[in-house]
Design goal:
The chain is mainly beta. It has one helix and eleven strands. The protein is globular and about 45 Å long. The N and C termini lie far apart (37 Å).
Length: 119
């Protein structure tokens, strides 16, 4: 069973909204920092948004004010609400869970979901 499973990508017009979901196991969800990354064709994977196990959030400048990362503990699900989408948001979006327990780094990745913003 995959540690992280993503849902919710698709095709949307500029200015539209999408919500991505990432279902995790309870052990991961409660103890790991959770992140959304994206990778556009021909570009490196970039960090979009993060939430710590304590609930602190952080965003890339390119998505501040448009994207919201959140965690729902009752169903161990991470969300990324994306509003006012732009063509440059087109990418494969990945959910990531990370925890550092020196000397071991724990990393889990979702399968990726395509988001296409186009008219």
């Amino acid at each position: 069973q995959a540690a992280l499973v993503e849902f919710g990508g698709g095709l949307v017009q500029p200015g539209g909204s999408l919500r991505l979901s990432c279902a995790a196991s309870r052990s991961i969800f409660s103890a790991f920092a959770m992140h959304w990354y994206r990778q556009a064709p021909g570009k490196q994977r970039e960090l979009v948004a993060s939430v710590t196990s304590g609930g602190n959030t952080n965003y890339a400048d390119s998505v501040k004010g448009r994207f919201t990362i959140s965690k729902y503990n009752a169903n161990n699900t991470l969300y990324l609400q994306m509003n006012n989408l732009k063509p440059e948001d087109t990418a494969v979006y990945y959910c990531n869970a990370h925890r550092s327990v020196p000397p071991i780094e724990y990393d889990y990745w979702g399968q990726g979901t395509q988001v296409t913003v186009s008219s």
